[in-house]
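task queued by scheduler; priority normal; single chain, no ligands, no partner chains; default sampling; output format set to structure tokens
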Amino acid sequence: MRFLIAVLCIAMIAAPVQAGEASIEIKALADGAPPPPASIDDVAWLGGHWKGSGLGGQSEEFFAPPLAGQMIGAFRQTKPDGSIMFYEFYQLLEVDGSLALRIKHYNADFTGWEEKDDYVAFPLVAAEENAVYFDGLTFKMTGPDELRSAVVVDEGKVLEFVYRRVKPAGN
């Protein structure tokens, strides 16, 4: 219930678009369909630090390189005044010959949205050279250093994020 309330609050802040109007495609896994075969190496291109806009503030994504069939990641969202809105922590992993993305959400004070052992799961729908489609969530490279993501929330509304790769200091 707390998760649903938080998602609804975010959806109201974000000026979302309706599903189908997103600038990148969002796919859904057909009911009862198994996720397609894939390995963590298929999405290694997500690795790095990404910074951009979304939800009216600054958004950041961090993905560590693949290790032992997994990538870990984090998301940080700020409000327009620069204060923290919320965090997400990711586990992108190989499951039964495919991929799944698991996300846990946290308020700025690090209190969790989901119960202790719960998370939001996104099974894989398709993996392409520069895009990965989870059920209701997409990451897509739209340029050499540009990443876009979109997620369906609140009965078909879509939240979109546009990121630029953050280059390490000295590069």
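post-processing summary
- Helices lie at 2-13.
- Residues 1-21 have pLDDT under 50 and may be disordered.
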